[in-house]
From TrEMBL:
Annotated keywords: Signal
Superkingdom assignment: Eukaryota
Leader sequence segment: 1-24
PANTHER family referenced in this protein's UniProt entry, alphabetically: C-TYPE LECTIN DOMAIN-CONTAINING PROTEIN, LITHOSTATHINE
Originating organism: Meganyctiphanes norvegica
Ranges of residues in domain C-type lectin: 47-178, 189-284
Record-given protein name: C-type lectin domain-containing protein
SMART domains listed in its UniProt record: CLECT (SM00034)
Length: 329
């Protein structure tokens, strides 16, 4: 149970005495994995809770945006030109870094009409937000945003802070990339992002309806949602399977189904061998049992089991890169 996992985690901390284990393990009694110690690796750096790369290279706005996007690797993180309005403490930590470096950096705000400004994810920029400098944005034709240190003097004091400004998109300046973690409602397990239907009160669905729902999800640009699979490079299968068991969720649909008389395959076209140790001892049943769910019942492990596809069950969605898009229905 999650309570047992919680107690075990506390015991390990007490016996081993490693305070930094808290950076890689969540000992709250939630039953969820929460590893944030390694997601922000060099050349990125954690500023408060945000993950940023302040580049020494200089290029125009579009080149900077493309450069950030090219840093997207793996199946979890999207990399974009940095946004503000994420978390006020993250925003302040980022602006403090700009102040310290005393350079001009592209951030991801842009306007097409000189009136409405948006971040790379399509979110509107609040023009009254405190991170704008006084009277900004104010220059016609400066359709991109940059962060820069400024000195404000008055009769009592001198204040050195960084703000954002409108800026000519064609100028070559430094830029800041930001890692965006799993989309809203997804959680990180191992090296992938997953959405569990039962965590959000979603109805139980047939296998095909569950897949259609996953495919409809709005995830990061360059990625798509689908039913979860196992056995991908860098995937932590047992972490996902253990998550199902710890949270006592039985029979959630995943992305595998019958391909012919008694052969199964994953939605990305990989074979699911009948001799795989992932199957429960008396499975698969073939025939009408044409879609796959994760099954744990009273056993101490989670296994694969074949089921009838029109049965309504919970389900697990996973975020994938478009480069290996699955065989869509």
């Amino acid at each position: 149970s999650s309570n047992m996992c919680y107690k075990l985690c506390l015991l390990i901390l007490a016996v081993v005495g490693l305070p930094d284990i808290l950076s890689s393990a969540n000992c709250e009694n939630t039953g969820k994995y929460n590893n944030t110690s390694s997601w922000c690796e060099s050349p990125f750096q954690l500023l408060n809770k945000g993950c940023y790369f302040l580049s020494d290279d200089q290029m125009d706005f579009d080149g900077a945006a493309a450069n950030c996007k090219s840093l997207t690797h793996g199946h979890i993180y999207e990399v974009i030109l940095a946004m503000l309005e994420n978390d006020k403490d993250d925003d302040q930590a980022l602006l403090n870094a700009v102040t310290e470096l005393d350079k001009i950096f592209w951030v991801g705000g842009k306007t097409d009409d000189g009136i409405s400004w948006t971040w790379p994810n399509g979110q509107d920029i609040y023009l009254k937000a405190p991170f704008w400098d006084v009277h900004e944005p104010n220059e016609v034709g400066n359709n991109c945003t940059a962060a820069q240190r400024n000195t404000h003097n008055d009769t009592l004091t001198t204040v050195i802070r960084s703000y954002i400004y409108d800026h000519n998109c064609n100028d070559s300046i430094n830029f800041i990339c930001q890692k965006i973690k799993c989309p809203a409602d997804f959680i990180k397990i191992g090296n992938y992002c997953y959405l569990q239907s039962w965590n959000y009160g979603l109805p139980e669905l047939s296998w095909q309806d569950a897949r259609d729902y996953c495919l409809s999800l709005d995830v990061h640009e360059g990625f798509y949602g689908d039913l979860a699979v196992l056995g991908l490079e860098g995937q932590h299968d047992y972490q996902l399977m253990n998550y199902i068991m710890v949270n006592n969720v039985n029979h959630p649909w995943i992305g595998a189904s019958l391909s012919n008389e008694c052969s199964y395959q994953w939605i990305d076209g990989r074979e699911l061998p009948l001799e795989s140790s992932y199957w429960i001892y008396d499975q698969p049943l073939c025939g009408d049992f044409n879609s796959i769910a994760l099954y744990h019942a009273n056993y101490s492990r989670t296994s694969l089991a074949s089921n009838i596809d029109y049965q309504s069950k919970p389900f697990i969605c996973q975020m994938f890169k478009n480069t290996k898009k699955a065989n869509l229905p």
